[in-house]
Amino acid sequence: MEQSDHLAPPETILFVEEEMLIRMDMAEYLRECGYKVHEANGAAEARDVLNSKMAIDLVIADIRMAGEMDGIALPAWVKSNRAFVSKGPLHDPCDSIAFLTKPYTGRTLFDAVREALAKRPQT
Known about the structure:
The chain has one domain: 3-Layer(aba) Sandwich (Rossmann fold), CATH 3.40.50. Helix content is 36%, strand content 15%.
């Protein structure tokens, strides 16, 4: 089997959402689409996952979250505390911020995820 015959591993997404039903439903939808998905109930849990040095290709976060950090401050924290190397050159995750207005469907989320992941630098 040639190198090109191997499928790339699925991209890994961290889905940060305090509303449990939305988080579970959308995370499951993304899994069915072939992504590996970790869930976090707010910014504190997201920081724990990110501090674990687990490979994360994309962070999806709700803008309104309780606590000291919301979905606007989380990307700045990521930029200051975690370097992402994804398929090659160092990529600044804050260069790829996009907004998706609620309510959204699984398909709308999937399309936004594909677009965000396609913008990453390739080797």
